[in-house]
Each structure stands twice: as structure tokens, then as C-alpha cells.
Specification:
Number of strands: 46
Number of helices: 3
Structural class: mainly beta
Largest sheet: 6 strands, mixed
Helix content: under 10%
Radius of gyration: 30 Å
Length: 669
Amino acid sequence: MTPHDWQALVERFAPRVQLSRTGLFKDRYGPASVEWYLERCTLRDHDDPTVCIARPTVADLACHRQKCAYLKPDNEHVYNGDWHAAPMYAHVRAVTDAGGQFDGRQIDIQYWFFHPYNGPIGILPVFGAHEADWEHVTVRVSRWRTLGESAVEAVFFAAHGHTEGSWLVSRSGQPKGGAYTLSGGSHVDVWSAWHSHASYERRGLHLRSKTYFVANDVCSGGGEWGPLEGGRLVLVAVDEAVCGPGDTGVDSAPWLSFGGRWGSSEESPRGPSQQGTWRDEGSPAPLGQARQIAGFGEHWGEKFGTTCVALGALGGRDVLAVGRKGPDHDRFFLFGWQGDGLVELDGGGAHWPDKRGCRAIAVGAFGEQGVLAIAPEPGDDPGDVELYRPTGDRGALEIGRPWQTIGADWGETRACAALALGRLGGEQVLGVALEARGDASGSPRFEIYRWQGALARWQGGESWPGPCGCTAIAFGDWGGQPVVAVGRSAGPGARIELHAVQGDGLVQVPSDGDLPDDVGVADLAFGEVGGQPVLAAALTADEGLRFIVLAAAESAADDRDPAAAGAGFASILRGGEGWGAGRRATGVAFGDVDGEQVMVVSRSGRDNMRVALYRDSAGRLLEFSRYGNGWGKGRNATAVAIGSLGDQQVIAYGRNDGKHGRGGLISPL
């Protein structure tokens, strides 16, 4: 990279700072440039009275690395700064792993702000006043060598230094605590506190327990400052570790080597490169705890746990479909979003015999219309899959009696284990995973239904060993073509297969299942990580590996031939090894949340989290939030889904029996 490239990169992510310039908390102590400040200072030395340089230059500072040197402003008028012409100063550094190695995936860009004076703060503003004030924020950036693809991954808001500053990894559409916001897609919004100039992610009051709350910060905003407002940005240093072969590098600013204080008091700070945060601010803050924004099932009774959830469109509106256990009354429900919460629209399943619960559910497009697909738990006979079409108006969304049923020819050896709606062979289709009850040798283990004026189907899995059933099914794109992924119960051979349409039937896309024989697949979901399609699988293991995320191996062949594409899987994430014995993954989902690709894994648990959230970070999936801590022993997350509801992207989860709610919608923040 050239100096021009580095400049373009730091400008792309330059923050927009809101100085406190309005109301009661109007800060008169603005930022300034280093040169402006030096023209109004004298360089002195506590240990050497002969040092007295009026209006020192940056070269003079470079020659005084001793800690006893300091800068004395000419008068108090200097304290006001020159904020309309003040620049930000950028420093690029490497992000290293635990072993101190830089893999090139991410870099940190620090943006430093200089204020000639730090004003008094506190309940009575008498604390903390001193000459000179260096403040900063750090923006962690991925894919930084490709400017058009680079993105913000985390932000360190320094507040009052390393002990009070914090890394934030969650992004929000509106300013709020614990999540940063962006202007123009890449410029972090920063609020500068009144007089202290501490950097925060939102306006308002910020409590400081380390000062016993007597020196709290207030951010009032009203003074927009930064390159977005026509200001300057000066690149002062790029760490040598970041520069790769062919990089021309950037000369560091001479004043960075000044070792003294930038004001005349002992509280005055040393320069950016003399502070510990220049080199290290730790790792991003501990995982945030997701919060619930709506719930359902609070009044079901202790025996009625949620078994499955799905999000999709039905009857012209977005709905949440929920299946639950028996023993009587409705076994499945439709919810919509109204006002600021969930409202029940309709339910069904009360006509099912043998006190069966709902085993699988799917909602969305099928053929040219929306359907709700429901599978009851098998009883003495396997039971059928029911398809419902909505009746009534958009507000009522009544579903009435089943429109079609599937499964009359399955016999006693097969029953529905999972359902999915998606696209395959140019049509909107319904996938049915079939479990094997006894020896089902020679029988199909999954079916794909199309609507062509009547139900038509493709079948697969006839060659599977007799006791192996299909446990999960999902539709997505792989190698540039639509495919169906099917998961299998434990046993020998591949546990995950991909199939595409070729001619009048299905053809298997070569794949492999790198899983122990005693591990099966509980759920599947397609997604995207780093711009490439991936397939996530929740596994049935009680210990060790609980979920895996797969991408196409580099050896994938010509995607024009479905039988030749995707010549194998490459694992990009293997997770759950640290969960502890007895905790299984129960579901997995991919989707878009606040403009970012998010993967969610639900699990059973004796304690701690029941839902883990992962986000795309520089082509990797990193856990950034959790939910379900504190549920108590025996409380499991049974299913998870991501989709649209009420003009918002939501994460839905289900919970097993017990007291209180049986599921709801959660926000990552």
C-alpha cells in the first residue's frame, strides 16, 4: 500500500465526533492542532532550567524525549482551542493473536484528539481540571486491504483510559448504551463529554463508579466535528508489523517521540505514543447478553413446552409459527406483530388424536402461495403432514382446516422428523425429512414436494442403511446453484448430503461427513460468511463437538454439472467443545440482523447460556452475544429461527416446559 492508500483507509473510517456545545453543558474547551498549540507554548524542563524554547517546533519536541520536559501555554486564552480547524490524528496498528502474531485479517485504527485544556467536572465542577488533554477512540477494521469490502468490527471508546474504556462489538440503528452507531456506513459516531472530552457511544449521562459517581460525564452533543464536516485527518503512524511486502510505509510524526507532558501540571498527559493504550487496549469486551423484546406461552401451563418455531410470510403478513407439546387443546399457533408486541392470530391441532404435540413446523411460499406446514408427533400410526392455506382477511389470518395432507403412503416404518420450505429446481418447494422407525431399508428418507395443480414429489435416501433416518432438511445455494441439504441420524457414512435437481429427479452433489459414527445431525441452516455460502449443522453429541459450519472445499469442480460441484466440505468453524457434558445443540439458524449476517445456535443446558449468537467478522464467525443465562437447571432452548416480523429482523426461540414463558423474540444487544 502507498501513503495515499493508507490515507484513504483511515479517512474511510474517520469518526464523527459530537462535541458538547449546547445547553447547560456547553464546553468552551475545544480541540486544536499540535502546530497551533505549539505556537502558543513554551517548552521547559523541570530538571534543567536552561531549557526554555518559546514557540517550539515539532522538531524541537522530537529532541526532548525526557519525561521531565513539559509545555507551558502562554495564557488561558489558549485553553479554548481552535476546534473549527483542529484535525484528528490517525495511528494504524496490527491486531495480534494470543501468541503475538499478526495474521493480517484485522487492524486497529486509533483516532486521537488533542484539547489544550481539560475543564473541571463533577457534581460541583471542581475535579479534574488540567492543561492539555489527549483523547481517542479505536476502530477495529476487517478486510482492510480491499477498501470497498473493509468493515467496522468493533470500537474501543476510551472514556477515561484503559480502566474505564470498553470495547463494543454490537451495532445499533439508534444511539444506546453498549452498542455503537455508524454514519454513512463506516464512520463511528462518538460523543465527547463536557469538559473531560472522554469518548462515549451515546449522548446523555455516563456514571463513573470509580469516582464514586461524584465526577460523572455528560455528553450533550451539538458540535459536529471531523472529516465528514470538512475537517482534516492527519495520518501520524503506521506500525511496521502492518506493512507488508511492497508497502511504501508512512513516516511517523516527529512529535510522537516527545517524552514529556503536554501541559505544565503533573495531571497533564503524555503524548499518544507514550501511553499504554497506543500499543494495547485488550480484547473486545466480554460477550453481551441479548435481551428479550417479546414473549409467548406464559399461560400455557407447566406441561406445554415449545417444540419448534418458524418465521415467514402467510396471508400477506409476516408471522411467527410456534409448535408445542400436547396433551390437548391447540398444538400450534400463529403470532403477528402489533404495536410493540406479539399478538396471537390463530391456532390449530386440537383435532389431533392421542394427545400428540407438534413435532415440526414451516411457514412460507409453496407453489405460488403461502402455506403453513405442520407435522404432529407420531403415535401408534405415523401421522400425516398437514398443509394450511390462510382464509379470512389480512388482520384475522384464519387457517381453518387442513388444505392438503402428506404421508398416507409412508407406512409404519417412517414418520416426519423435520420440515423446510425453500426453492429448488426453479420452484417453491416443501422438504420433508423422514425418520426411520425400525428397519426402513430401501425406503425414501426424504421427500421434496412441488405444487403443479396437484402435489408432485422427488424422493431420496433409499440407499441409506436400514436404521438411519433423515433428521434435518434445509434449502440454499451451493456452488452457484440451488440445493437441498439433508442431515442424517448417527451411523456409518456421510451424515450430511447435498442434492440438486437434474432432469426429472435429484442427483447427489459429492460431499463428505467428517463426523464420528455416534454423532447425528439435529438441524441445518444455509448462510453466508465472508461472501461465500456456508452450511451450519447442529449436532446430537452430548460432549465434544456440538455444531459445525462448512464451506465448499477449494477442490469444488465445474458448477455447471450438479454432480461435479462441491467436491467436499471445508470446516470454517467447529464449536461447542467447551459447553460441558450433557449439553446438546438443538437448533441453528442464519439470517440478516441489523444489516449483518448472524448465526444463532440454541442448546439444552443445565446452566449458563441457552442461545449463542455469532456474527461474520472478516470471513470468520465470532460469538458476540448470548441469551438464557439464569433460566435454571433443566430449562432448554428447543429451537431457533431468524426472519422478518413487523418490519424488523428478529430472532425467535422456543423453550421447553416449566414455569413462565415458552419462548419469544430476542435482540442481540
